Amino acid sequence: MLEIKDLAVKLEEEEKQILKGVDLTVEAGKVHAIMGPNGSGKSTLSYVLSGRDGYEVTSGSATLEGEDILEMEPEERAAAGLFLAFQYPVEIPGVGNMTFLRTALNAQRKARGEDEISAADFLKLVRAKAKTLKIDADMLKRPVNVGFSGGEKKRNEILQMALLEPKMCILDETDSGLDVDAMKLVSEGVNALRDEGRAFLVITHYQRLLDHIKPDVVHIMADGRIVKTGGPELALEVENNGYADILAEVA
Amino acid sequence: MALPEIKQSVTEARLAELSLPDGGAWATDARKSALSRVQTMGLPGRRDEYWKYTDPTRLTAAVAKPASLFDPQESPVFGEVDRLKVVFVDGVFDAEASDALAMENVEIERLADASAMDIHWAKDVYGVLEARGQDPVERPLAALNTAFASDGLVIRVTGKAPKPISFIYLHREEVSDAILHHVVKVEAGAELTILENGPAAARFNKCMEIEIADGGALHHVRAQGRDHERQAVTAMFARLGAESVFKSFTLTVNGVLTRNEMVVELTGDEGVAHVAGACMGDGDFHHDDTVFVTHDALNCESRQVFKKVLRNGATGVFQGKILVKEGAQKTDGYQISQSLLLDDDSQFLAKPELEIYADDVACSHGSTSGAIDEEGLFYLRSRGVPEDVATDLMVIAFIAEAIDEIEDETLAEEIVDRISNWLNRRH
Ligand SMILES: Nc1ncnc2c1ncn2[C@@H]1O[C@H](COP(=O)(O)OP(=O)(O)OP(=O)(O)O)[C@@H](O)[C@H]1O
Ligand SMILES: [Mg+2]
Q1: Contact B386 A107 (CB under 8 A)
Q2: Separation between Cα atoms, residue A171 and residue A34, nearest integer Å
Q3: Which of A74, A83, A105 sits opposite B381 (nearest CB)?
Q4: CA distances to A147, B104, B164, B310 from B188, in Å
Q5: Per-residue model confidence as pLDDT tens digits over B71-86
Q6: Residues with CB under 5 A from ligand 2 (ion)
Q7: What does the domain layout of chain A look like in residue ranges?
Q8: What is the pLDDT of residues B176-192, one digit of tens each?
Q9: Is the CB of residue B404 less than 8 Å from the CB of residue B70?
Q10: What does the alpha-carbon distance between residue A69 and residue A65 come to, in Å, rounded to a whole number?
Q11: Any atom of ligand 1 within 6 Å of the Cβ of A34
Q12: How far apart (Å, rounded) are the C-alpha atoms in residues B373 and B179?
């Protein structure tokens, strides 16, 4: 599904190399997790994949189902099936959540040559999805993420994911800021989307999320590289011992 | 004191092109005294502090510059609204195209008819509010208007008007120069909504004087367009009695030069005055909102909300003042002016002012100028919203606070539609 080869990225504005050759392949139907110390480049990877400005790819490639995504505009990547649940979802005063969701869904449909969804069908769809995530109708009426609590923002990310039904879902610390119940809700939302044709890349610091969303593969990222890859037991090791042992071992 | 030579000659050249319309005693008196105000003040020039950001040359020129006609290929604004239509073509009332000037609780006359009478209630308003508005800042183009206005309506509202009066200003001649003056008197407890739209003329000088008695309400929504080369200077003078309400919103798109002056005086306790505007400028576009709100009573509330979206070298100007007179305690005054600059070529010039002579008031003002929020834009795009659509969403979001000042939802939607159409034409 997602194939990243030797991806090196520096900041556009300064001579600072952040990713130093990332190799990572996520197969369809699988859940991969990335863990790693603060500042190791996890969010940068997710931003570069989704097309945020400010980075320069100095080498390597990233493809989604064989298509080079690094050359695409962010909206083209979205239409191709890529989705990033942001570590810090952005507040957009003045843009209504519903308008935003409908515009996004219809834009993606249009880009894929599908018909736009009717206002009535859209309303039904959003209400149903929101209900399973316990997002109340009032929140949907408000401007995008404005005045949402940290946890509400994260739930809103998952709502968008559930609506847009992307093929490749990247979740950047979706668990941070969630209370225990919300974490369960969000995980159930993610698990409900697990499917043969869909893959997940879950960035997290904590084993707890991975108790709910069971990963097939766990990667450790440090200083801009994937330094170790293993099974779910790798996450447990991090939970118990921190990164020191792993980093010493690969150094 | 004699006028500076340039001012003198500009003023004389302009006056030479005009002659005082005929009228009865009251109107002739009003026009003559307005003319002497013009002669004393002289027409505005680039050196005048109040015209620092806007060059008045085209507005004061003896002869107007022509403006070509532009068809935006959209149905005219307010089409969905049940209203009494009053049509002016290049500044001349068109009875055929207009509805009958009659409505429950409202008396409507043409200015010429009211002027012809020897005695008329309009005597207490026509040129009177404009003359008051000359202090402390001179507005010679409004006085010029009072002196020479060739048409306009005189409206008295005695109860709740069943529907809005809708001024439609058509521009048909590339060479046209229109001076219109309306007078509106809202009696105690009465209510009216006024709509205005259209480019009006190649050059347009419009003045509206509004007297609102205790407990009265006047709502005003204007969609100012549309022809790229048209030039306009407009002035609204509103005087509010106790517990009265005045709310005005203006959308401006296109137009090489627009100066909208708004002079509001709160003279009775617990009055409410909101003036708001949004403008969308692209390229050769200069838009100036000049607002002066005076608090001269207890417990009044005023809001000024102005938003400007500028690109391709467009210029936006805001000069806004809140003056709180001695004794105007418990004043609640708010003023915000913001611009969204879509490129580096466009500019926003703002001069927000507060002048307060009462000690128990809450006044705030702010002015910002900024680019589109890149984080927000990326967030929208990452969800599949194309860049141009995402930008439009952000633009509409930016002006939302001004649109919110329109109370009537249908009218607000009409305005948002205009903005969307304007944005779409630019994709
Ligand atoms: N725009 C930027 N300007 C300056 N430094 C940046 C920028 N973006 C990223 N960095 C730096 O790059 C490094 C990687 O940041 P990134 O956000 O990818 O880390 P992370 O692994 O997601 O960390 P965390 O676990 O704290 O979320 C950090 O040192 C960060 O300060
Ligand atoms: Mg991060």
Answers
A1: yes
A2: 10
A3: A74
A4: 42, 16, 18, 41
A5: 878 888 999 899 999 9
A6: A 42-43, 87
A7: 2-250
A8: 999 999 999 999 999 99
A9: no
A10: 10
A11: no
A12: 42
Domain ranges of chain B: 5-371
Question: What is the sign of the dihedral through the CA atoms of B33, B37, B38 and B44?
Answer: negative
pLDDT exceeds 90 at position A94 = no
Pocket test for ligand 1, best of A13, A18, A46, A84 (most atoms within 8 A of CB): A18
Question: Nearest-CA residue of chain A relative to B403?
Answer: A94
> For the whole model, what pTM was predicted?
0.88
Of A52, A93, A104, the CB nearest to B383: A104
H or E element that contains B276: strand B272-282
> Could you identify the residue written with the tokens 């048209």?
B230
At the fourth CATH level, the homologous superfamily of domain A2-250 is: P-loop containing nucleotide triphosphate hydrolases (3.40.50.300)
CA B256, distance to chain mean position in Å, is: 16
- Write the residue in B375, B389, B394 that is nearest to A107 by C-beta: B389
Cβ within 8 Å of residue A49, ≥6 positions away: A2, A4, A62, A69, A77, A82, A84, A170
CB of B384 less than 8 A from some CB of A: yes
Ligand 2 centroid to Cα of residue A62, in Å, is 19
Q: Is the pLDDT of residue B1 over 70?
A: no
B384 and A104: CB-CB below 8 Å? yes
In whole angstroms, what separates CA A177 from the centre of its chain?
16
